[in-house]
């Protein structure tokens, strides 16, 4: 009989109430993860031991402010995990105040920290309490402008594979007029490139079309930008992996997210994949213009 402990991959799901924690947990269950909701942090080591005994090698746990005072025990619980050789990944789900208010009003439930105050009071208390763990998160997903199906797709893209320690990169195109993505690790601005919007034949098309892509990529400054961006990703990838970071989101923006950023993201993703870097693509604002 093999008494070697089963290696456990631990994912902590946290974030604001109403930002999609339940959707993320259900998606992971469908992907074969063992998921525990609303676990007090002090029981994390017990969960790991139980998971090893039952041969669960992918475990996700939802930790959030519903545990009230127990939430403050997260740093100590993580320190215990580290001594046991477990480095948890952290998925943080965020959303704008407006999105949280809209969702909470639709379900007619108070927030855990709302008390006798209003929804916005509860949201701000959560943000303050979660600020530290958000700063430590491996991946932040802003769900303000995506639906449950799009969130499930993001979770599946990121956590649907095996447990190999590789960097899962997401390239996101967006439009500055719709706001900078909250979940980006790095943000690039390609508004320095000529805008196909002002070319009548190209205006109705997007950066996914060959004529627009050829126009954008054919600009003199496009190739140097791509080379520098590619070199930067290749530089940070080994460091991220060395530090245990498995997910990174690079956002590339233009005015509306339709032409320049879309074309640049598609081309950069193609080159990264050629180099063996696992890369997903999200066009956040395509179709919103």
Notes on the structure:
The structure is a single chain. This protein is of the alpha/beta class and 289 residues long. Helices cover 39% and strands 18% of the residues. Helix 2 links the parallel strand 2 (34-37) and strand 3. Helix 1 crosses helix 6 and helix 7 packs across helix 9 (260-274).
What labels would you give this structure?
5-stranded parallel beta sheet; 289 residues; 9 helices; 39% helix; 18% strand; single chain; 4-stranded parallel beta sheet; alpha/beta
What's the helix and strand layout?
Elements: E1 9-15, H1 21-30, E2 34-37, H2 44-53, E3 58-62, H3 74-83, E4 89-94, H4 97-107, H5 119-135, E5 139-142, H6 148-159, E6 168-175, E7 186-189, H7 210-217, H8 222-242, E8 247-254, H9 260-274, E9 279-283
Parallel strand pairs: 1-3, 1-4, 2-3, 4-5, 6-8, 6-9, 7-8
């Amino acid at each position: 009989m093999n008494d070697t402990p089963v290696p456990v991959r631990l994912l902590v799901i946290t974030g604001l109430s109403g930002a999609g924690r339940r959707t993320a947990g259900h998606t992971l269950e469908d992907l074969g993860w063992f998921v525990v909701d609303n676990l007090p942090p002090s029981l994390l080591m017990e969960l790991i031991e139980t998971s090893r005994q039952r041969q669960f090698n992918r475990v996700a746990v939802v930790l959030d402010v519903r545990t009230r005072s127990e939430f403050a025990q997260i740093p100590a619980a993580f320190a215990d995990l580290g001594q046991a050789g477990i480095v948890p990944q952290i998925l943080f789900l965020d959303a704008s105040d407006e999105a949280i208010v809209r969702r909470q009003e639709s379900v007619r439930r108070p927030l855990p920290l709302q008390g006798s105050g209003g929804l916005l009071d509860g949201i701000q208390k959560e943000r303050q309490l979660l600020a530290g763990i958000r700063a430590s998160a491996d991946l932040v997903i802003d769900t303000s402008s995506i639906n449950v199906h799009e969130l499930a797709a993001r979770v599946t893209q990121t956590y649907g594979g095996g447990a190999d320690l590789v960097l899962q990169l997401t390239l996101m195109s967006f439009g500055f007029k719709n706001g900078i993505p909250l979940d980006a690790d790095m943000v690039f601005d390609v508004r320095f490139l000529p805008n196909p919007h002002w070319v009548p034949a190209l205006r109705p098309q997007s950066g996914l079309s060959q004529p627009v892509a050829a126009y954008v990529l054919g600009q003199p400054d496009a190739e140097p930008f791509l080379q520098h961006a590619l070199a930067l990703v290749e530089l940070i990838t080994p460091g991220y992996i060395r530090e245990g970071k498995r997910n990174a989101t690079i956002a590339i923006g233009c005015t509306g997210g339709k032409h320049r950023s879309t074309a640049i993201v598609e081309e950069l993703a193609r080159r990264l994949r050629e180099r063996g870097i696992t890369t997903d693509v999200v066009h956040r604002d395509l179709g919103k213009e």
